[in-house]
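1st attempt posting a full record on here, be nice pls
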Amino acid sequence: MSRLQQTYGLTEEQREIVAAVRAFVDREILPVATELEHADEYPQDIVDGMRDLGLFGLMIGTEYGGLGESLLTYALAVEELSRGWMSVSGIVNTHFIVAWMLTHHGTEEQRARYLPRMATGEIRGAFSMSEPGCGSDVAAIRTRAARDGDDYVITGQKMWLTNGGTANLVATLVRTDPDAGHKGMTTFLVDKTPGFGEVAPGLTVPGKIDKMGYKGVDTTELVFDGYRIPAAQILGGAPGRGFYQMMDGIEVGRVNVAARGCGVARRAYELAVAYARRRETFGKPIAQHQAVLFRLAEMATKVEAAHQMMVMAARRKDGGDRNDLEAGMAKYLASEYCKEVVEDSFRIHGGYGYSREYEIERLYREAPMLLIGEGTADIQKMIIGRRLLEG
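the predicted structure (as tokens):
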């Protein structure tokens, strides 16, 4: 197993960061993940440990108190976190996307205000595009922001906010010009109090959405009812750029989802190998039966292929190139392979895989989220196909 998911060409510092995260996962996450997941309990002790490791500032520039690391380093850290418990990676993912958007699209005043405190985890980020009536069709959003003097007044409902309750900063995409299509969309930096209920005048976070998996992390709605926000809170200072800003964030987010798929698949494979070595039928471990051996070989190949695709997508973005093709491919491949590897591990476990006492049961419920997060498989194929036809 040690030969899987090797990443060549890393610096010594990158290797040390990944090794530190892996040790943290083995020590602090794996022993408690299933218990916390079954209880749908927010992993506060784990979050505190991630703050101590500096993970909330991993990609924030050193001038703002972060570690200034690459997307690849971050993706490898997410891969390790997801191997322990995918929900934990979700806690840092939306935070990371907001920090990325601020770094690349925010004004200097906005970066100075938010990034130092995001690097320490004092400010925790969430981002919001989806609505009850639209997910992949981002251009169909209905939440409106109307200009009123030096402010905007926002009215509408957003959906599927990861960290919607615990975050105190939400990058929110709304429509400021109803007649301008995607050029009439604007991203606002919404400050709020952590928690549920009315978290600011005119802004409500209802309770957590009850989900099949991906528990522990809070997923919520966000309801605006005459919420007033200064124009200075527009990301980048000017309206009409929100669609592009969000798509840039989603592009790196897709690398993150690919990394999650790699981590979950790796854990499912580890569990399958361990179980196949100790479970005996017909007088020998089932790992020695050809059918199981072939299944393990197929699983390992998928784990490795997804990892290498994810690494390529991250490195392309780090090189300053457009990576929507590679990110779409990585997200598509890793999420589909993750589902298949988890199911194969479930099959190897036999009836015990259906028991809540076994970790694979949790992974079996978590893997489907990756099929829809940051764009469904069909959306990824549309992106891939269109980019290929561009030549």
